[in-house]
Batch of 2 targets.
Target 1
Amino acid sequence: MASDMKTKLAAKLLANQERHAQAEQEPTVDLGRQHMMISIEKIDPNPYQPRTIFPEKELQSLAQSILETGLIQPITVRKQNDRYQLIAGERRWRAHIHLERRVIEAIVQDASDDDLAVAALAENIDREDLTDFEIGKAIRQVEALFPSRTKLAEGLGMNREDMYRYFAYDALPSFIIEKLEKDPRLLSRTAAADIKSLLTRENSTPEALNALRSAIDLVISKELDQTKVADYVTRTLRGETVRSSLRMATPLTKDGIRIGSITRDTRNLVIKLKSTSITEKQEQAIRDFLDNLVAQSK
């Protein structure tokens, strides 16, 4: 789905740019694309950037690659008075800051706010480490480009029901949004939709909000899985005794990208890894380790 969405977004961006060119440019005028070196200090981030976290290890790896092979693809910016605003390439720009470079190679071109919003989502949507919360923010930023949410879902190549889950974040209390801004991995879109339904059902009473605060604190301390928040609150409001350790999940990451998880409940310990994240040799090493571990427990 991500690849299909990125293709559709790229097409929307191209259509926007062609529309601007036809409306604003005379036939004899150059479209304004310039290839130049720009001072790092004169560049501002794309205000529609959906990504709120840039893993340090990932930036270090990119910076090392740039140090060894140079910048393969220039960043893209637009002119804003005496400064420049990123259209695409924030990770490359941040890597240059990490390297303490003073200038960066860039393509300067005309772009509207709509273009910036679409480009930011298109650049990031196929990255597996982009969270549901960040995708939700980005979708809301491009929503105005479509006549309805139905058309938005069609344009993004998304199931409409699933897209509405991304909008569920809008209904969450401010204390949860503040925590999501700091840790966008805190709640998935499904968990957000469950919480929205819960608050609607309970009319967001003080009791429900207090129970929700407690549940979120347990998620942060890794004592409660985020998928169980709504159930935890419901059972608390019923006066039931709730075990906070309903299900504990710890993500497994590599270079800042999630490749699996370790989940433990009262009955099972489940380790999940994306098959594409490890080699056959590494898989065999895991199997050998588990065989030895089981043999030792006999």
Target 2
Amino acid sequence: MPDKTSMEKENILTSLGAKVIRTPDTSVDDPDGVFHISRKLAASIPDSIILQQFKNPINPLAHYHITAMEIFDQCDGEIDMIVIGVGSGGTMTGVGRKIKELLPNCTIVGVDPVGSFIAEPPILNETTLKYTEVEGIGHDYYPKTLDKSVVDYWIKVTDKESLHMARKLHREEGILCGSSTGSLMSGALEAARNLKEGQKCVVMFPDGVGNYLTKFVSDYWMESKDFLPRPNIFKHWWWDITVSNLSLARTETISLNMTCGELSSMLYSQGVDVLPCVDQNRILQGIIYAKDVTCKLLNASITLGDPVRRVLSQKYRKITVNSSLGELSHILERELVAVIVEENGKYYKLQVGTVEDE
């Protein structure tokens, strides 16, 4: 399961008796990513199976024969537009193909998060973002189940638009949906501008709120991700002072070339709980938590000879020297570490502020 996946999803699987292994949020080709690790586990665990939802042809067939027909029947065959996102690609392909056969003039609109590379033409995907907070839709690859020819046009939606729309649906409509539903509803409102009065638009709501109670449902989480402002409730005089006014010692960093054994020795000898990891250009790649290294060594999910990227975590908050002390305080109220990044051209100098015991 990728690091960005909510804790609720992990907890549900754990309660069902599963052992959950977290992987970095990396590309589909990364040997430490979720696809490679799952194949490796399947090869080593007797009688195991991977359902292969991203390339199993039965996936779109189920939506072709069942989901599409349910939509058609419920709408009495009167549908002018359908708005769908791409997770595995099964819904888009199955529903899109069937509805196009039944209603050739129905417009199929694809919604894709900014930071994903599914939409066409490719110019729509141009962005500096490499990460999306919305879960369940959007990828940096094309699922083999996806037939993009059924899509008439694509709409890109930002994380902020998606999450605020999902919360609006909770508050105003009583629909307790997930983040990807916010994406689709935002895209649908934009697409519906092309409809005439009386025409029907169907929006596929793919997820419920239960998997995201500690994420976008939480005001704190929304504030920590800059999707909501952080109020200075207690009127602290230092709230708007910038981090650059603090005296912070430089922290040690670790290289991607280190092994887990070398890392373990370094953490023990220096007595630190967390260290940032950088590449050869000193660009931040992630954070190493000592407890993660210890746990993974003890349960044999890593060896001392493995590269440190096997224990890299993306679960940290990154701020700049121009961020306010209010923002830093807000982070350290609940989280162990904040990484303060001072940008100088393409290079980064790293500092780490941590919560220390009194």
